[in-house]
Design goal:
alpha+beta; globular; Nucleoside Triphosphate Pyrophosphohydrolase; two-stranded antiparallel sheet; 157 residues
Length: 157
């Protein structure tokens, strides 16, 4: 069965333009990957736990910060190249990237070494303008940017 994920695309207005918060996956596999490797803050869910509560929980676990407050905008679902289905919501808010404190996972590294190492699930978070965000995001998640741009005013009121 394919994995299911849920996440939140946090956005803000800076200099009258929209910026979005993206995260870079931690661990050795993504160490040298940048463009096309970033994601919205999200995490794996069970088949019966794909709603907004799961997305908010995963936001807190990946960033170490309280989840954003309502209102939330549903951004629908995408299917990533590996088959994972991701449900997403957008919310306007702030996050200080210097305060990132992600949960960790363990992995045998290097492979077949018998050594287990801990890695953060997220090793970096940053704010991106819309064009940069499209370039940095995993290809399937770029649809979330398009849906966000269709749902919110392009300039603050």
């Amino acid at each position: 069965m394919a994995e299911i994920g849920a996440g939140v695309l946090l956005y803000r207005y800076r200099d009258r333009r929209i910026e979005v918060l993206l995260v870079h996956p931690g661990g050795p596999f993504f160490r040298r990957r940048d463009e096309g490797a970033w994601s919205i803050p999200k995490g794996e869910c069970s088949a019966d736990d794909t709603g907004l509560p799961a997305a908010l929980r995963e936001f807190e676990e990946e960033l170490g910060a309280p989840a954003p407050q309502p209102p939330f905008i549903s951004l629908g679902v995408v299917r990533q190249a590996g088959g994972k289905t991701v449900h997403a919501w957008a919310a306007q808010g702030e996050f200080d990237v210097a305060s990132l404190s992600s949960n960790a996972f363990e992995l045998e590294w290097p492979p077949r070494s018998g050594r287990t190492q801990r890695f953060p699930e997220v090793d970096r978070a940053d704010w991106f303008g819309i064009d940069s965000a499209r370039r940095m995001l995993l290809p399937a998640q770029r649809a979330f940017i398009d849906r966000l741009m269709a749902a919110v005013p392009q300039k603050p009121s």
